[in-house]
Amino acid sequence: MFRPLLIATCLALPFAAIAQDKKMTPQQEKMAACNKDAGAKSLKGDERKQFMSDCLSADQPSTAQKAQQEKMTACNKEAGDKQLKGDERKKFMSTCLKA
């Protein structure tokens, strides 16, 4: 009676693990980035612990936020170069940021 249930459970577990979403949380992404930086600097022991603590506690924008900020700066500069104002500027900025 329990044997078929046990077999079914054993077969289902690997598929459940595969089905889980592999996307990392922002904190996991930050941890991975700090860990990579510490490895690149060949830090060991207390020096590595201090670096990781400082890196993880720092309020750093994510990669996506940096990209968005860079895009905003570029679009803003272009709108300024074209001397756009009011609704015309709003429309340009909207189109530029979506591109």
Q: In angstroms, what is the radius of gyration?
A: 24 Å
Beta-strand share of residues: under 5%
Q: What is the quaternary state of this protein?
A: single chain
Shape: flat
Overall number of structural domains? 2
Q: Give the uncertain stretches in residue-range form.
A: none
Q: Which sequence of SSEs, written as H and E, runs from N to C?
A: HHHHH
Query: End-to-end span in angstroms?
Result: 60 Å
Quick one: how many beta strands? 0
Q: What is the mean pLDDT?
A: 81
The number of helical elements comes to: 5
Largest sheet: none
- The helix content is over 70%
Classification by helices and strands: mainly alpha
What does this structure look like?
- The chain is an all-alpha fold.
- It has two domains: 24-60; 61-99.
- The protein is built from five helices and no strands.
- It is flat.
Q: How is the secondary structure organized here?
A:
Layout: H1 2-19, H2 26-40, H3 45-57, H4 63-81, H5 86-98
Helix pairs in contact: 2-3, 4-5
Brief overview:
The protein has 99 residues and is mainly α. It contains five helices and no strands.
